Automatic annotation (TrEMBL):
<dbReference type="Pfam" id="PF00491">
    <property type="entry name" value="Arginase"/>
</dbReference>
<feature type="binding site">
    <location>
        <position position="145"/>
    </location>
    <ligand>
        <name>Mn(2+)</name>
    </ligand>
</feature>
<dbReference type="InterPro" id="IPR023696">
    <property type="entry name" value="Ureohydrolase_dom_sf"/>
</dbReference>
<protein>
    <submittedName>
        <fullName>Agmatinase</fullName>
        <ecNumber>3.5.3.11</ecNumber>
    </submittedName>
</protein>
<dbReference type="InterPro" id="IPR006035">
    <property type="entry name" value="Ureohydrolase"/>
</dbReference>
<dbReference type="GO" id="GO:0008783">
    <property type="term" value="F:agmatinase activity"/>
</dbReference>
<feature type="binding site">
    <location>
        <position position="119"/>
    </location>
    <ligand>
        <name>Mn(2+)</name>
    </ligand>
</feature>
<keyword id="KW-0479">Metal-binding</keyword>
<dbReference type="InterPro" id="IPR020855">
    <property type="entry name" value="Ureohydrolase_Mn_BS"/>
</dbReference>
<dbReference type="InterPro" id="IPR005925">
    <property type="entry name" value="Agmatinase-rel"/>
</dbReference>
<dbReference type="GO" id="GO:0046872">
    <property type="term" value="F:metal ion binding"/>
</dbReference>
<feature type="binding site">
    <location>
        <position position="147"/>
    </location>
    <ligand>
        <name>Mn(2+)</name>
    </ligand>
</feature>
<feature type="binding site">
    <location>
        <position position="226"/>
    </location>
    <ligand>
        <name>Mn(2+)</name>
    </ligand>
</feature>
<feature type="binding site">
    <location>
        <position position="228"/>
    </location>
    <ligand>
        <name>Mn(2+)</name>
    </ligand>
</feature>
<dbReference type="GO" id="GO:0033389">
    <property type="term" value="P:putrescine biosynthetic process from arginine, via agmatine"/>
</dbReference>
<comment type="similarity">
    <text>Belongs to the arginase family. Agmatinase subfamily.</text>
</comment>
<keyword id="KW-0464">Manganese</keyword>
């Protein structure tokens, strides 16, 4: 199954600026252009390719880290998997292939950054890390939405259900930037006392970052970023935009602290749905991906 659901129809992250080496690279970019359950604005299957193309416009030099990160870190771009642009892929196939590919890459020691595609993919990514180790980890989610519905529009694999699947896996969660949910989700949050950092509080409480960091119960963290967690004025290219949300520097401030205080075992950047004639979203998503690589490199000594 692996070969038929794998596609080479994406360009490498940063392109000609670096020479990717699959064996020695410490970071693996995993494009997953899968879209099946989008409920509002479609197009997230085009997200990974747009992000990767936009990454060619990035400066190698990171002004905050004061390094050309891409020359200190090997960044390998894996072929796209579960690509619904060119074939039919079921949610079950996508989840199985995602879990296996993440497991393979992570067990070879690579820090994996999965690029979506719809947020339901994250359940497969997280399952890959669960398969890899019995050590506990927390799933930290940046998102506008709770994504805690049991089922939506007839399937438990809907993007609006992905954090419910994560909760069912027995993993602790910390949700950041939330500003849209249904009463079923609100009741679940109260019943299970799930830690939530509401966007409305983030907007007015400067100490939210330290509170959110303190709410993470494990040393190890998997980070999932639904790009709609960011304010849509900075990130219009998403399927379900919500007013409010994180600012660019608010998000970076949180991520910088998270990578410093915790061991981030892997991450994903989900739900990029490009807008025609507006490259803000894909370029911002590409820069965010490069920041994640930089923070990981700093935390693991690769920039020394
Ligand atoms: Mn989401």
């Amino acid at each position: 199954m692996t070969s038929t659901l794998t596609s080479t129809a994406v360009v490498d992250f940063l392109g000609s600026e670096i020479v990717p080496n699959a064996q020695t690279a410490q970071v693996a970019i995993l494009p997953i252009p899968f879209e099946a359950t989008t409920s509002y604005r479609k197009g997230c299957e085009n997200g990974p390719a747009a992000l990767l193309e936009a990454s060619h416009q990035l400066e190698c030099y990171d002004d905050e880290l004061e390094r050309e990160v891409c020359f200190a870190v090997g960044i390998y771009t894996h072929p796209a998997i579960a690509d619904t642009r060119s074939q039919d892929v079921s949610s079950e196939q996508m989840l199985q292939l995602t879990q296996q590919t993440v497991y393979d890459l992570a067990s070879s020691g690579k820090f994996v950054i999965a690029l979506g595609g719809e947020h339901s993919i994250t359940a497969g990514v997280v399952a890959g890390y669960q398969q890899l180790s019995d050590e506990p980890f927390t799933v930290v989610q940046i998102d506008a939405h709770g994504d805690l519905r049991y089922e939506y529009e007839g399937t438990i694999h809907n993007h609006a259900c992905v954090m419910r699947r994560v909760v069912e896996m027995g993993l602790p969660t910390v949700q950041v930037g939330i500003r849209s949910l249904c009463i079923e989700e609100a009741n679940l949050i109260k019943e299970k006392q799930l830690p939530i950092f509401w966007a409305r509080d983030i907007a007015t409480q400067p100490d939210w970052i330290e509170k959110a960091i303190a709410a993470i119960p494990t040393k190890r963290v998997f980070l999932t970023i639904d790009l709609d967690g960011i304010d849509p004025s900075s990130m219009p290219g998403v399927g379900t935009p919500e007013p409010g949300g994180l600012s660019w520097y608010g998000l970076l401030g949180f991520l910088q602290r998270l990578f410093t205080t915790h061991t981030v075992i892997g991450c994903d950047v989900m739900e990029l749905a490009p807008v025609a004639d507006c490259v803000v979203s894909e370029f911002t998503a590409a820069k965010l991906t490069y920041k994640l690589i930089g923070y990981h490199a700093l935390a693991t000594g690769l920039l020394n």
